[in-house]
Design a protein that fits this description.
Helix content is 46%, strand content 11%. With 513 residues, it is of the alpha/beta class.
């Protein structure tokens, strides 16, 4: 069964078995269907298939039930009998229970290894999306990133970004001439949005050590690809943070991986669950970015599979690039639902044996209308397919089982301790401290000079000397000034250079007398 994944079948004659060819698996895919129709199981069996073929995968566990990939199914499971019956029906003669190599990740660090990136790596476009900024506010964010680059001040965490924004506000008069208007109101709005993200736990996403992409692309000694599972049950409470993080990860893969053309199998398969969150209220620039990544990342050997309730959730330009499709049941209760159902049916290659629109409406749980790419990347004819049963456990594992897997992971300890190296916040603080010291020293010198002058005036006032008129007054004022200057300079200047200057000044004064 090399270089292909068994997805399911439609009858005892095995004539309608559906296979996903790994050579076309990097041409992306779609898993769609209403809640409870079997999307999660389809995602699970595809993850199993890719791992068994030596392809690492990354997926998010929104409902905490995909962790079962780490544990083999058992005959004691309530669905054991239906699984065996379905396996026999679709000709799945080699069906066996098995566990798969799993690495758990968690942005909050509770249910998996911590996941971090830096503010600089996230970039202003995605960060503006995360913070829900206006165009003017995004412009200020771009200025902050630009200056940080020019001044070689790393933006690693939210403290760095906050410090940079404060510095922008303090120096806005000078900077506005070069970069455009910098409004304190806009800076304040960005700071408030940072506080909101911080309250949602988003601050944990930013910092070091940052996630190394190579840790997502590992293949074990047994030749199986690593299954990377992101704990997303808590993360889903902040849907914009969830979507932005996954899009950042996809963008990083696109930016960092080298071109490999059309490999025999993908280097990594990325499952984007709840994909509609990525596109809800997304600005055009962001949608264009996703389209660009989806179009070009396959040449990096990465396959992207969107999981959502309705194909209509995915923009048409991106939907057109999703060659492998598994469409579970759609419920057409409203006019919009019926329109979406009709459009979904039109994207499939027709099968004269049944009406696709009717089939999408009627397929049961665990059944789907599939169309998988065939030779030369041609879409396969639509088929009604019974999805094969999973080999791993269906459902979650216990907290103790998860803890044991984390402890045994070869990544244990690598990301646990947060680093806080010298970055923008510390650099700007050092600048501020140096400026404060210089100002304090200048003020102290001025105070000393004022004190010396006051002492001189007080001494002259009580010396009994009378101030003459006309030229005598000017001569005495000159003498008084010379005496005061000598006192101040002698106090202030030290060392060889100081003595030379003092000699020069005094010499000049004496020559003039």
């Amino acid at each position: 069964m090399q270089n292909r994944i068994f997805v399911g079948g439609g009858g005892v004659d095995h004539a309608e078995q559906q296979w996903l060819d790994l050579a076309y698996a990097n041409r992306h895919g779609l898993i769609a269907g209403a809640t409870g129709t079997g999307k999660t199981v389809t995602l699970q069996i595809l993850a199993e298939g890719f791992s068994a073929q030596g392809v690492p995968v990354f997926l998010s566990d929104v409902k905490s039930d995909l962790a079962g990939l780490a544990k083999a199914g058992t005959e004691s499971h309530k669905l054991h009998a239906p699984f065996m019956e379905r396996a026999a029906t679709i000709g799945f003669d080699w069906y066996r229970y098995a566990a798969f190599p799993v690495t758990f990740w968690d942005l909050f660090g509770a249910q998996g290894h911590p996941v971090r990136t830096t503010v600089a790596d996230m970039g202003p476009l995605l960060l503006a999306r995360l913070l829900e900024l206006s165009e003017a506010q995004e412009g200020i964010l771009n200025i902050a990133f630009r200056i940080a680059d020019e001044e070689a001040m790393p933006l690693l965490d939210l403290d760095d970004l906050r410090a940079m924004l404060i510095w922008l506000g303090e120096n806005r008069a000078d900077l506005s001439l070069r970069y455009g208007n910098i409004s304190t109101a806009s800076i304040g709005a960005i700071q408030r949005r940072l506080l909101v993200i911080e309250n949602q736990g988003g601050a944990r996403l930013f910092g070091e050590p940052a996630l190394a992409l190579s840790d997502l692309m590992r293949v074990g000694a047994d030749g199986r690809g690593q299954v990377n599972i992101l704990a997303a049950d808590q993360l889903m409470q902040s849907p914009r943070l969830y979507a932005t993080f996954l899009l950042w990860l996809l963008s990083e893969l696109f930016e960092e991986l080298p071109e490999v053309g059309d490999p025999d199998k993908p280097r990594l398969v990325f499952f984007f669950d709840e994909a509609h969150l990525l596109f809800d209220d997304a600005p055009k620039a962001l949608v264009d970015k996703v389209e660009q990544v989806a179009r070009l990342i396959r040449s990096k050997g990465v396959g992207v599979y969107f999981i959502t309730q309705n194909p209509d959730d995915v923009p048409e330009d991106i939907l057109a690039q999703l060659g492998n499709r598994v469409q579970h049941a759609l419920r057409a209760f409203t006019a919009r639902d019926r329109k979406a159902l009709r459009l979904a049916a039109q994207t499939y290659r027709e099968n004269p044996r049944f009406d696709i629109e009717t089939a999408i409406r009627e397929v049961g749980v665990g059944e789907a209308v599939t169309s998988l790419l065939e030779r030369k990347g041609v879409p396969g004819i639509a088929e009604r397919t019974l999805i094969r049963p999973p080999a791993s456990q269906l459902g979650p594992i216990t907290p103790s089982e998860r803890k044991a897997i984390l402890a045994a992971s070869d990544l244990a300890g690598k990301y646990d301790t947060r680093l806080d190296r010298h970055s923008a916040a510390e650099m700007l603080k050092a600048r501020a401290d140096a400026a404060a010291r210089a100002a304090a020293e200048a003020e102290a010198r001025e105070d000393e000079a004022d004190a010396a002058m006051r002492e001189y005036k007080a001494a002259r006032r009580y010396s009994g000397s009378r101030v003459g008129r006309s030229s005598s007054r000017r001569v005495r004022e000159t003498e008084s000034f010379g005496d005061a200057m000598r006192e101040v300079v002698m106090k202030e200047l030290k060392g060889t250079t100081g003595r030379r200057i003092v000699r020069g000044i005094l010499g000049g004064l004496f020559k003039g007398r």
